[in-house]
Amino acid sequence: MSGGRFHRGDRVRVLTHANCGNPRTPAYAKGCTGVVTAFHGVIDNPLDHHHPYPPLYTIAFQVSDLSGRDSPDVVMADLHEEWLEPV
Amino acid sequence: MSGDHPHIQDFDGHVDAVASDLEYFRRKRIEPLVLLYLRRGIIGWNDLFRGHELENWRSSSQPEPDVEKRIRSLEDSLDELILSIAAAGTPPAEHRIAIDDNRVERGDYHPEFRLAARRYEGALETRIGVLEDAIADTRHLVATLTRALILVEQVTDEALEENRKRLSGLGFRNGARIVARAWVDPDFKQRLLETGREAVRELDIPPGRLGKLGVAENSDEVHHIVVCTLCSCYPHDLLGNPPWWYRTDGYKTRIVADPRETIRDMFGLVIGPDRKVVVHDSTSDVRWMVLPRRPARTEDLSEEELADLVTAESLVGSAEVSPPR
């Protein structure tokens, strides 16, 4: 598995707009800050897309950060590297 | 849920779910697939017309008078439609379709290729009637395409039958067997959590090829639940279809905004304050399933009997596995 820009435990912010690559990033996460909990590398998934997408990370978001509610719960989303910036 | 055939509580919810599923499979699977075959010259219009004649399609007869039965039969015909699309839409290995094109043409991303959406509005029974017709139309289209593909010798009857058999064998029973093995064999559980699909080969379950399989293990501290907010990714190739509400917008929106309350309101499952809820938002690259907690009073059960306790809902995380009665 090739290395990525981010590592487990890094805090990252999700961009509100990415120019290229994978268009799939959930709207609720855009602009939010989360923590990298897993690195999946570049996933070979030819049935879903022909070219490899950038490296994929699992990012943990606090529900309280996403929706402003008082909540101990967590949403984990798998996001590609070009959508993330370091905090 | 209790009993084998629980009554439908929410008629509108079921009908809305059928409408959104139908639109998904119509706009992103079958109609773009027909267009793709035409564009590539794999079939011509005339093959479709001949296929139509050979198919000799007749729409089904009188609808059920009972609304609940009518909704059930709507759901059954949708399942049949999805199965026939999957069977027809699995091209033979030597079939060269550019997957990038395929993806674009499936209308997900490129506005130029997007097929117009239909709205299914009106009173409940009006909507049911419109959906019955729309599903019948789309089944006709699939049958016609299938016939045309046989005519031009792109597929054979045997290959279609083979696809059909393989696809209808998929189901949450695979997931139940995986869970039961993980409960009785800690080493297997470890391999499952670490390698996902690779581990299921040990159960003679074909691992499938749709991205990675993520397995989230429930514990006394954490309750996991799965969603796909952008589309409806799920390890279909391993576990068959998720429960009907998985594709509804209501579930997708609510579960990420307020997981604990949504689980309580939608599924009647109360997660205690001592447990954290973790929502996993699936993508096509990592498709998640939940490994539920083993219920109490199951020490004497065999692996087979344990598998019988596992429900489709528990694999998504909207239910716990109940102890044996």
Q: Which properties best describe this structure?
A:
heterodimer; A: 87 residues; mainly beta; SH3 type barrels; five-stranded antiparallel sheet; 1 helix; B: 325 residues; mainly alpha; Nitrile Hydratase, Chain A; 2 domains; two-stranded parallel sheet; two-stranded parallel ribbon; 14 helices; globular; disordered N terminus
Question: Would you write up a description of this structure?
Answer:
The complex is a heterodimer of chains A (87) and B (325). Chain A has a single domain (11-86), classed as SH3 type barrels (Roll). Chain A contains one helix and five strands; from the N terminus they run E-E-E-H-E-E. Chain A has one helix spanning 63-67, and strands at 11-14, 33-41, 56-62, 74-80, 84-86. A five-stranded antiparallel sheet of chain A has the order 4-3-2-1-5. The longest helix of chain A has 5 residues, at 63-67. Chain B has 325 residues and is mainly alpha-helical. Chain B has two domains: 11-168, no CATH class; 172-316, Nitrile Hydratase, Chain A, CATH 3.90.330. In chain B, the strands form two sheets. In chain B, strands 1-4 form a two-stranded parallel ribbon. A two-stranded parallel sheet of chain B has the order 2-3. The longest helix of chain B has 29 residues, at 11-39. Chains A and B meet through helix 1 and strand 4 of A and helix 4 and strand 3 of B.
What structural category do the secondary elements of chain B indicate?
Answer: mainly alpha
Measured by DSSP, the beta-strand proportion of chain A falls in: 25-35%
Strand count of chain B: 4
- Report the portion of residues of chain B in β strands: 5-15%
Multimeric status of the protein: heterodimer
Largest sheet composition of chain B: 2 strands, parallel
CATH topology of chain A: SH3 type barrels
Encode the helix/strand succession of chain B as letters: HHHHHHHHHEEHHHEEHH
Radius of gyration of chain A: 13 Å
